[in-house]
Amino acid sequence: MSVQQISLSGRKIEVSNKEMTFLERIYVWTILKGLWTTLKHLFRRKVTIKYPEEVREMSPVARLQHMLMRDEEGKERCTACGLCALSCPAEAITMKAAERNADEKHLYREEKYAEIYEINMLRCIFCGLCEEACPKEAIYLTKSKKIVNSGYEREDFIYGKDKLVMPLDMAIKNTQTNTVN
Amino acid sequence: MDSVFIIEKSVIIFVVFALTMLMAMYSTWAERKVAAFLQDRVGPNRAGWGGLLQPLADGAKLFTKEEFFPNTPNRFLFILGPAIAMSTALITSAVIPWGDKIHVFGRDVLLQATDIDVSILYVFGVLSIGVYGIMIGAWASNNKYSLMSAVRASSQMISYEVAMGLAMISILMMSGSLSLKDITVMQANEGWNIFYQPLAFLIFLICSFAETNRTPFDLAECESELIGGYHTEYSSMKMGFYLFAEYANMFISSTILSVVFLGGYHFPGMAWVNENWGINIGALLGFLTLFAKICFFIFFYMWVRWTIPRFRYDQLMHLGWKILIPLAVINIIITGIVMVLFN
Questions:
Q1: Contacts of B34 in chain A (CB under 8 A)
Q2: Out of A28, A31, A38, closest to residue B38 by CB
Q3: Predicted TM-score (pTM) of this structure
Q4: How far apart are the CA of A35 and the nearest CA of chain B, in angstroms?
Q5: Smallest CA–CA distance from B38 into chain A, residue
Q6: Would you kindly state where each structural domain of chain A is located, as residue ranges?
Q7: Chain B residues contacting A, CB < 8 Å?
Q8: Cα–Cα distances in Å, from A150 out to A15, A45, A153, A156, A158?
Q9: Total of domains in chain B
């Protein structure tokens, strides 16, 4: 078999400039064939997703709004090491570290924690490099399942810890399911 | 002429007018629905059940839009254009026989606004005035795309009217009358014309596509080449009138196709129904039959729109002058020979 005849997709069609037959030239028959094709589409299943009522399912690995995780005891995992900010190609992440007090042991996992942790969602390109860089498994883009909302002010897109940290009830639920197992 | 006669005719005219408008309105809905279904979509489904209130919403939108006038010296003609298009689309329905006689209030009422002897000539005459609506409006728009559209529309109409008229002549040779009523009655007695004159039917069908400016002959308003064609400069309800006129024209030409070739209000077993169930039921069934035929043709217009791509201008002229007209002439000759040999 020569190279010209190989069809990798299996759908290669040879184009030819052959003379049309009489049936093709009178055009009516070919129109009828076309009408039959379109008529079949009339009864086909529709592909439309009726959006507000039906929502297309997100991929389980879709990278959406970030979430700062808590561990199974509900403590924040982030230690403000700054590797995510360093790895971020869009320079969207900024943070300020602070030392944990003795009475905050139930809040933060290690002695150092992020006092301020901000992501500028307008800069973020949702590449997921922060997730890869994080040594503490503290930041994930796949957990929140939330799309970053639109807004009117640039300032509204700088998300602080109030929006990023995993909600407590979600942490509680995680812990419960883990202990049951 | 008594006053009851005037009332009777007024009622019929009013009903036909309302029906034409309603059909034109819901053709816009059907067009979008059919287009969507043929493309595996669902089409308008928000306004009302299945989007049935969509035409009302569209109408309300068109009414409330800003009236825009281009910088044209022909303001009168600019308004006259859509007016002509709309009125010619509406007055064609006067000669259509919508059904046989009905018997109400002790009178025989003919379900037809007027039964003139030259119905077909009248229809052809009004149809050819219809192109003036496009030409005048486009010329007054002072826009080169509109003008090109008008040139295309008029040459297309003139070319295809010839073939249309010639196709009709073979029908007239068989019926011996220009009245649509007589043609319907003849078909009721002898069988539908489509079986005797399939070639004439095909030519007439193709020409109706051209006359109503529908795809594949929508060169007058092809969006991809001429923006919107003749209604580029129009907005608000004047635009609405053009669009409405197009759909009213579609309705009327479907009606004429049904009346001339598919036996109009005739359905198999009509005589039996008239005898046993009374002529009122027969006329009602006849009207519904005609309506079903019309709806089929309207659907067919939309169906073809999403099947066949637009013709090129030279292909259009080639088809009109070099194929359809000779075929129509040949058809006349064959009809004549057959009539001489077998009668």
A1: 42
A2: A38
A3: 0.77
A4: 6
A5: A42
A6: 67-180
A7: 34, 37-42, 45, 202, 303-304, 306-308
A8: 49, 34, 9, 9, 12
A9: 1
Say if residues B55 and B29 touch (Cβ distance below 8 Å).
Answer: yes
The two structure tokens encoding residue A56 = 């297309």
- Residue A71 has a pLDDT of 85
pLDDT category, A88, cuts 50, 70, 90?
A: very high
**A53 → chain B, closest CA residue:** B46
Phi first, then psi: what are they for A112, rounded to 5°? -105, 140
Domain extent for B93: 3-342
Structure tokens at B322: 């070099």
Nearest to A41 among B40, B42, B45 (CB): B40
Contact B40 A46 (CB under 8 A): yes
Chain A positions with Cβ closer than 8 Å to B: 28, 31, 34-35, 37-39, 41-42, 44-48, 50
Measured between beta carbons, the chain A residues lying within 8 angstroms of B44 are: none
Using one digit for the tens of pLDDT, what is the confidence trace for B5-28? Answer: 788 888 888 888 888 888 888 888
B305 to chain A, closest Cα gap in Å: 10
User: Quick one: DSSP state of residue A81?
Assistant: -
Closest-CA distance, A15 to chain B, in angstroms, reads 20
**pLDDT, tens digit, for every residue of B150-173?**
888 888 888 888 888 888 888 888
Per the CB < 8 A criterion, the answer to whether A111 and A152 are in contact is no
Return the percentage of chain A with pLDDT > 90, whole number.
25
Residue numbers in chain B where pLDDT is lower than 50: none
Q: Which of A113, A118, A116, A115 is nearest to A130 (CA)?
A: A118
At B315, which amino acid appears? Q
Q: Strands A67-68 and A139-140: what pairing?
A: antiparallel
Question: What ipTM was predicted for this assembly?
Answer: 0.76
CATH architecture of A67-180: 2-Layer Sandwich (3.30)
In the prediction, which pLDDT does B248 show?
86
> What does the pLDDT read at residue A179?
65
Q: Is the pLDDT of residue A87 over 90?
A: yes
CA distance A137 to chain B (A): 44
